[in-house]
Write the structure tokens for this entry.
Amino acid sequence: MAQQDSTVLERNCVLPQVADRTALRAYKILRTRLLQRLAAQQWRSVAVTSTKAGEGKTLTSINLAVALSQEPNTRVCLVDLDLQRPQVAAHMGLSCGPGLGDYLLGEAEALQVMYGCGSQNLIVIPNTRTFDNSSEMLSGARMLELLRVITAEMPSHLVIFDLPPLTSDDVLTFAPRVDGVLLVVAEGRTERTALTKAKELIGEMNLLGVVLNCSAERDDRNSYY
Ligand SMILES: Nc1ncnc2c1ncn2[C@@H]1O[C@H](COP(=O)(O)OP(=O)(O)O)[C@@H](O)[C@H]1O
Ligand SMILES: [Mg+2]
């Protein structure tokens, strides 16, 4: 089990330390819609992305993973796959040992970078190291081996991958390895032209849904279509 600092969770609006009832309700709706869509296709892995940095990919990935893990009979593995700006551990107030970057560099084994987090139903693979050649790392042999171990060790877990934005080729590189993609759109921040481009890039992938983050309307703070 990794150690977690609950004041960090509260400051970062990370579940379960979220008091805002509107936000809680929105995450539950997001969780349930996603569960239904995954079950309908017998899918189990999801990549979370957006058009640029700071739109809420990491916060959405974490809160979705925690909300899913709170559902009875649902187990989740959350993987920090943003090798350019890894932030899952920081947002979750996690202090732990080796992470994904150490594994990718051959300095840790797969089982050493999987941490139980908060409940038995949530495993996190955190990262603190950044890589200039991130897309090559994502398509490399170590990464393929990690996916194999995740499937072998956690055959019934849903797997959420927090990815970089669509501005690099990381998502294109990794998309064939996941069942579906969730696109985070930040109201007032995501530009229309970037969205049009995103639609083209995502064209060949299975788009599971669009999450509207930072909505000005209280009842829509975190909506899902
Ligand atoms: N709906 C939200 N409510 C409050 N803070 C948010 C919300 N969405 C994002 N943030 C904050 O905005 C910053 C960027 O979010 P993050 O999830 O790290 O974005 P990304 O992963 O897309 O770069 C973080 O500090 C995060 O806590
Ligand atoms: Mg992020």
